[in-house]
Write a structure and sequence with these properties.
Layout: H1 5-23, E1 25-28, E2 33-35, H2 40-57, H3 63-89, E3 99-100, H4 106-134
Antiparallel strand pairs: 1-2, 1-3
Helix pairs in contact: 1-2, 1-4, 2-3, 3-4
């Protein structure tokens, strides 16, 4: 059913990965502002994360598949976070006036929301199994 709490968590994770990543900056310098969709690998990873969240919303009848897609999405966001950290630590020609943007926190927010969704999915699965035992 679509009116479950995990649907809200997954929708917020999709909005965070798909929508906010286009609006919030990753890095601000004197010359330019860098967004996530300026780089191809960031765009692909953010789009894949948002797409996995949206697909997972509509797989509410198969909770196990929904749970696996949530875990896969968490791994994808961890890869994205690792890429952010790697790029921040190995940027050549870093200027003294460069500021890190709030967009770097988006994978962390998505991971937390996806973990909450997976917890709710697991709780639903346990509830269904307990009802099946009573029959």
């Amino acid at each position: 059913m679509l009116q479950r709490i995990q649907t809200i968590y997954l929708l917020l994770a999709a909005i965070c990965s798909g929508g906010l990543s286009q609006v919030l900056s990753l890095r601000n310098t004197e010359a330019s502002i860098e967004f996530a969709f300026d780089s191809l690998e960031y765009a692909i990873l953010f789009s894949a994360s948002a797409l996995l969240s949206l697909i997972s919303i509509f797989l509410f009848k198969t909770r196990q598949t929904q749970f696996v897609l949530g875990r896969l999405n968490i791994i994808l966001n961890l890869i994205l976070l690792g890429l952010f950290i790697y790029r921040l630590l190995t940027v050549s020609g870093e200027t003294a006036n460069s500021e890190k943007g709030i967009g770097l926190l988006l994978p962390i927010i998505s991971i937390v929301l996806l973990a909450f969704a997976n917890k709710a999915i697991k709780k639903d699965e346990a509830l269904v199994k307990s009802v099946d035992r009573l029959r």
